[in-house]
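This section describes the prediction task in plain terms. A model, or a person checking by hand, is given the sequence of a single protein chain and must write out its three-dimensional structure as a string of tokens. No templates, partner chains or ligands are provided. The sample shown here is typical of the held-out split.
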Amino acid sequence: MYVDEVGNSDVKSSENHLHRFLSLTGVIVDLKEIKEVIFPQIEKIKSEYFGSHPDDPVIFHRKEILNAQKAFSVLRNSGKRKSFDNELLDLLKNWEYTVVTVCLDKKAHKEKYKTWRYDPYHYCLAILIERFTMFLEQNDSFGDVMAESRGGKEDTRLKKTYSNIHDKGTEYIAPERIQPVLTSKQLKIKPKSKNISGLQLADLLAHPSRNEILNENELLDKPVAKFAKKIIAILETKYYQSEDKIYGKKFL
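The expected answer:
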């Protein structure tokens, strides 16, 4: 499961609408799918549109793509933009993966619980791991978790949170269920500059998924963008479901 975050865990900033919400999106994908399908196809589209080279790979970053910045400046051409957008949407639709997004309203949580038991990351990551555990059990499989590096204290905090959940379990799932299906006691953390396809995929999906959850709860301060709506339509087919219940979206 590749994890990407939107927002931050600073409770003090929760009064500011721009910093009120923290979300973590986990993209569950078989490593064979990464190796044989996603990685070669993502590199192909990078090469065709942006001249990406193995020695100097272009790294997909949603914000830069959206704003046609840096390597993606070619997307300022409307024809190129339309063609790229369509190809990217086709890839996102056809790749095999499962999505879980957890979004925390820090402001509401702060008002409800005067004393926080855990760091906000813990609440979100705990539910991600719960859902990942359920998914692995149902598919008679096992896996690990990788997150994008934020550097320094952020990485240390996320690793500590993961280890705590792995060792002690969560409020709803005991460690005796979590430990057998997770192959590592430690959270893997890698910078996006390592050109890891799963982290780039999570980056492309995390913000639209967060916005869908906020929109459903009437907390989005502006309409969902047109292109984001197209990604959200794809996400609806990718969210983790079990026995007709959607486990791929959780609002705290």
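For orientation: The chain has nine helices and eight strands.
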